[in-house]
Amino acid sequence: MKADRYRFDGSRRCDLRELPCDGKQDNLDKEQILAKTARNLQEMASLQDALYADGREGLIFVLQALDAAGKDSTVKHVMGGLNPQGVLVTSFKQPNSEELSHDYLWRVHKALPPRGSIAIFNRSYYEDVLVVQLHDLQKTYKMPPRTLEEGKKAFFKKRYRQIRHYEEYLYDNGYRVVKIFLHVSKEEQRKRFLARIDNPAKNWKFSLSDVKERAHFDEYMDIFETVINETASEESPWFVLPADQKWYTRYLVSEIVVDTLRQCCHEYPRLRDEARAELQDCRTRLEAEE
Ligand code: AMP
Ligand code: MG
């Protein structure tokens, strides 16, 4: 699939500054891409049905990015191809006091989908190694001094390990975690912020803190790169997708979702002989009612 070139599974290094924010290199024909996306959304729906009927595997799509990279619109778009009955969307915001009085995976674990379903995480536990690391928030959270005494580097190194183990744990328990980073350029972010300021219908999406965070754009890139390299694995890969053209990003995401669904055990459950005989019996009775 086309998104494969953006896949990181730990076998090669991700160098964010070398990776494209737009899709020029892929020789895009917008009409074709839109048509393919529409087909993917249809296929997604039938694969999701099979996932639900099979009920043995759960999927978690993690969306991470800087502000205005298109997380919300990606969620909205992908949801268009899924049956809401089998999907759970969770947006991870600044932790509230109850969340802060637990370990950082507590709120994540509560948001896991039942097997047979799909979860979309709009931000995730990755915030706990991204924004938390950038702003040194670990120091402000109530934790015993022993958890911090080895210093910042060791603290986050441990968190990377915890995340790797958590994803491995989920995989071993029937869940696949697929992580998607929407790689938007600094210039495109600027344009989208301006649009949010200029367009009254978009004002609500803009906050002063977005501009403050933008000042850390380059530091964020460094941290994202480290985080991606520390946590990419064969079972839980990262996809670093060009995000400057939303229609192309949506196509790539739709490819990833379809491909992941295909990898799951998605055969409709086969009935045992007795169960099939019971079905036939029911059929005979229903027909006799006519
Ligand atoms: P938005 O997704 O634009 O609604 O913003 C949510 C905000 O919550 C972002 O600024 C995130 O960085 C922030 N956030 C999410 N998770 C955490 C976390 N664990 N610690 C601190 N801030 C967080
Ligand atoms: Mg925001």
For the largest beta sheet, what order do the strands appear in spatially? 1-6-5-2-4-3
Gap between N and C termini: 50 Å
Briefly note the structural class of the backbone. Answer: alpha/beta
Chemical compounds bound to the protein? adenosine monophosphate, magnesium ion
Order of helices and strands: EHEHEHHEHHEHHHEHH
Unreliable runs, pLDDT <50, ≥5 residues?
Answer: none
The assigned CATH architecture is 3-Layer(aba) Sandwich
Note the beta-strand portion: 5-15%
Count all strands and give the number.
6
Biggest beta sheet attributes: 6 strands, mixed
- How many individual domains? 1
Task: Give the helix proportion (percent range).
Answer: 40-55%
Rounded mean pLDDT is 95
CATH superfamily: P-loop containing nucleotide triphosphate hydrolases
The total count of helices amounts to 11
CATH class: Alpha Beta
Tell me, briefly, the overall form.
Answer: globular
For this structure, the CATH topology is Rossmann fold
| Rg, Cα atoms, Å | 21 Å
